[in-house]
Amino acid sequence: MIVFDLRCDEGCATFEGWFDSSEDYAQQARRGLVQCPYCGSAKVAKAPMAPRVSRSDGSFADVKDVIGEVAALQAKMLSNSEWVGADLPDTARAMHLGEMEKRPVHGQASAEEAKSLVEEGVPILPLPLPVVPPGQVN
To answer: Per the record, a Pfam family (predicted)?
Structure first.
């Protein structure tokens, strides 16, 4: 079962429609069977909508809510970490080799630099969301 937000082209409403599949929606729409429940118009189209993600407890969340939760968790993780920017690969390597005191840091690394660090056994973890360097406006 799939749920779409649908919009009446007559401008009277946005409403939900439940279908067995995207193809089922397309077939019904072509046959004029998808109609606005307010005015009866068959001039109906899919409205933009945020996808829903199922949670481990079986409930659903909008992707924007999930991203917000991930962003809050990431911000909490980084609150006690120092931004080292493009120096991240060198800083992480130096701490790993004992050339520098270990401390929580975050910054930027290319995919190639990150791969090299992993191959050297340097403990790094990519962040799920981009990080705005201090002093820059998001």
So the answer is: DUF1178
Q: What is the crossing angle of helices 88-96 and 111-119, to 10°? A: 10
Q: State the DSSP code for 117.
A: H
Strands 82-85 and 60-62: unpaired
Contact in structure between 60 and 52 (CB atoms under 8 Å) = yes
Rounded CA Rg of the chain? 24
45-59, 62-76, 99-113: least confident range: 45-59
> With 90 as the cut, is the pLDDT of residue 47 above it?
no
Query: What is the enclosing helix (H) or strand (E) of 88?
Result: helix 88-96
